[in-house]
Amino acid sequence: DIQLTQSPSFLSASVGDRVTITCRASQGISSYLAWYQQKPGKAPKLLIYAASTLQSGVPSRFSGSGSGTEFTLTISSLQPEDFATYYCQQLNSYRLTFGGGTKVEIK
Amino acid sequence: EVQLVESGGVLVQPGGSLRLSCAASGFTFSDHYMDWVRQAPAKGLEWVGRIRNKAKSYTTDYAASVKGRFTISRDDLKNSLYLQMTSLKTEDTAVYYCARGGVTTRGRRYFDYWGQGTLVTVSS
Questions:
Q1: For the segment B59-85, what is each residue's pLDDT rounded down to a tens digit?
Q2: CA–CA min distance B111, chain A (Å)
C-alpha cells in the first residue's frame, strides 16, 4: 500500500499566520491527492482535490500544490475556524490511504 | 440536500459479526461510488473499502486490514449502503463513516459528502 507521511503532526499557530502542511507519498501518485479538514466530533470535510483544485464553497485562503510524491496544503491567513486536524488522502491506487493527520492548534 | 445517515453501531464481542447501514438521500444514489472510512478513538482516518456503481459492476476494493472479514454491498432501490463485518477484533473499534465519491476528475472520485458516523465497539 502507498504510505502518506504528513509533517508536522502538530502545529501551533496564531490567527493571521501563514501555515503550510506537507504530505509525502511513498511512491509517485501523480496528482491524485485530496486534503480534508476535521473538527472534533465531526466528519471530515473536503478542502482540496486533485492536489490543487479548491472544492466548492471552501475559502480561497486554502490552497494545495504538488505532484508525484510531495504535496503541500497552505492556509494563507489562519482564521479561528481553521483550528482543526488536516488529512491528506491518495487515490492513485485502488487501496486508498490517508496520512496520519496534522493537528493545528492555537498558539 | 445530500444526506448520509449511518446506523447499526453497537458493542459486540471479539469474534462477533455486525452489519452497518448507511441511508442516502438527496441525490441519485445509484450513480455514485460509495466508501466506508473508520476512525479509531483519538486516531486518524483509515479507509475501509469501496463499492462502485452498476456501470462498474458493483466491484469492490478493501483495505488489507479488513479484506476477507468485511463485505460492502448496496441496494440501489433502497438507496442504502451496507458494511457486513465478521470475525471482529478489538482493533476494529472505531467510528465508521460512509462517504460519497461525488467529485470526479481524471477517473478518481473524491469524498464530497460524509455521514455523521456510527460507533462500533469490540470488547468482551
A1: 999 999 999 999 999 999 999 999 999
A2: 7
